[in-house]
Amino acid sequence: MISRYTRPEMGRIWSEEHKIELWLRVEIAVAEAWAEAGLVPSEALERIRGARCDLARMREIEAEVDHDVIAFIRATVESIGEEAGRFFHLGLTSSDVIDTALALQLVEASDLLLADLETLLDVVGEQAVRHRRTVMIGRTHGVHAEPITLGFKLAGWYAELQRQHERLQHAREDVRVGKISGAVGTHAHVPPQIEEAVLTRLGLRVDPVSTQVVGRDRHAAFVAALAGIGATIDRFATEIRHLQRTEVRELEEPFDPQNMGSSAMPHKRNPHESERLSGLARLLRSYVSAALENVVLWHERDISHSSVERVILPDACIVLDFMLNSMTHLVRDWVVYPERMRRNLDLTHGAIFSQRAMLALVQAGMDRQRAYRLVQRLARRAWEEEVHLRSLFERDDEVRQVLSPEQVEAIFDLEPYLRYVDEAFRRVGLPIDEPAGATVA
Question: Are strands 205-206 and 143-149 parallel, antiparallel or unpaired?
């Protein structure tokens, strides 16, 4: 199921083949910088530019030397010859290549994830506009509170996705950093000017003070940003799961007629996509802990972070790519039940208008605590006796002493709850033109 919504491009970014392509790209950029400084002959540079690394040969050498970068260097030098090979990997340590190439991978992955986020933003925005006036009950603590619209709820989703998009852009910039500074970061064998020239060629920023590695606080912040987006998707998925419950049934995941919800019960249409997204969000959150542990390295570097990153960085990007595309499909094609929303709105027989009722009494001169207790008592009766609160208000002597029939009628008007929905849309940049098919209060 993961492959269903994961784009091939994301898998390619984290493939072994692409990693080696990026290692070569870094090595070539270094050779070009050295050539400009007059230390690599033009003939050797041309050979290095045409270098290739045979993966099978690299793995064969790695089995012998137990070091992937040494195996990469030896396999690549075999393709360019010993003479040009003297200038390959000149002055570098392994992490100069690994960390700089990893930055390129993270930037590529970030760009795909940003595009995924933008697509989801578009779909959520379209649904928000479509349902700007689709009235439903707002809930707090899982309990009916006051009326809102589905579009208003989705405008909140849209705003949250905008924030996550901004956070991912910041995280992308944070990891868009390489280093060509040598074994402990002191530039003992590669001057800062070479580092700057190389990273400019690669479109990366310079780590101002590195050790043998780029500081892993950057990578931890990146993983945290991905997990944060996952948590947002989890929040949306949890909402969908609740709204699809049989007792609620205001919203439903897309369900193809050929799908089967249960091996035992043919009637079942379960929110399995949302449940899967909630589960994957937990996985992303667990990676944050591992990424934070990676910040703590001995002295100028150890390799305790390396094995962890080989799992969590590709996996986090691939998982989030799936989650974003899955949520886009879910929101674009879900089924909305406006009639059910209106029916659920009336489940408490008008008790949801209690705050307007209390405020009307207070504005008419009644003490607030007295008004609160009066409305609380009548609202409880409305719910328990299944008599609309409006009828109870119209017949109550205390209410009739301070409110006219017209004032009582105004309490139960839905429009005051919806009058500022358009302002929320304007604040997040969503259009407020009335779309076809909207449910108007």
Answer: unpaired
User: Taking phi first (over 0 means left), then psi (-120 to 50 degrees means alpha), and beta for anything else, what does residue 185 get?
Assistant: left
Locate 201 and state its tokens.
């060629």
Q: Euclidean distance between the first and final Cα of the chain, in Å?
A: 40
Q: What is the set of active-site residues?
A: 141, 262
Confidence of residue 436 (pLDDT cuts 50, 70, 90): very low
CATH superfamily of 351-411: Fumarase/aspartase (C-terminal domain) (1.10.40.30)
- pLDDT beyond 70 at 434: no
Ordered DSSP codes for 71-112: HHHHHHHHHH-HHHHTTTTTT--HHHHHHHHHHHHHHHHHHH
- Separation CA 52–CA 363 (nearest Å): 81
pLDDT digits (tens, 9 = 90+) for 73-115: 999 999 999 999 999 999 999 999 999 999 999 999 999 999 9
In the prediction, which pLDDT does 438 show? 46
pLDDT value at position 4?
67
Q: Cα(215)–Cα(213) distance, rounded to whole angstroms?
A: 6
What's this model's pTM, rounded to 2 decimal places? 0.92
Domain positions in the chain are 1-90, 92-348+430-441, 351-411
Contact indicator for 148, 140 with CB cutoff of 8 Å: no
Task: Show Cβ contacts of residue 65 under 8 Å, excluding neighbours closer than 6 positions.
Answer: 71, 74
Q: What is the pLDDT of residues 182-199, one digit of tens each?
A: 999 999 999 999 999 999
**CA–CA separation, 175 vs 167, rounded Å?**
13
Q: Which residues of 84-113 are buried (b: 16+ CB within 10 A; e: fewer)?
A: bbebbbbbbbbbbbbbbbbbbbbbbbbebb
Which superfamily does CATH assign the domain made up of 92-348+430-441 to? Fumarase/aspartase (Central domain) (1.20.200.10)
Whose structure tokens read 């779309």? 435
At the topology level of CATH, where does 1-90 sit? Fumarase C; Chain B, domain 1 (1.10.275)
The predicted pLDDT at position 270 comes to 84
The residue behind tokens 């043998």 is: 212
Same fold, 1-90 and 351-411: no
Q: What is the mean pLDDT of residues 55-64?
A: 96
139 torsion bin: left (phi>0), alpha (psi -120 to 50), beta (else): beta
* Burial class of residue 311 in the structure, from the number of CB atoms within 10 Å of its CB (0-12 exposed, 13-18 middle, 19+ buried): exposed
Query: Can you list the alpha helix ranges (DSSP code H) found in 334-414?
Result: 338-345, 354-363, 368-385, 389-395, 397-402, 405-411
For residue 404, the cross-strand partners are: none
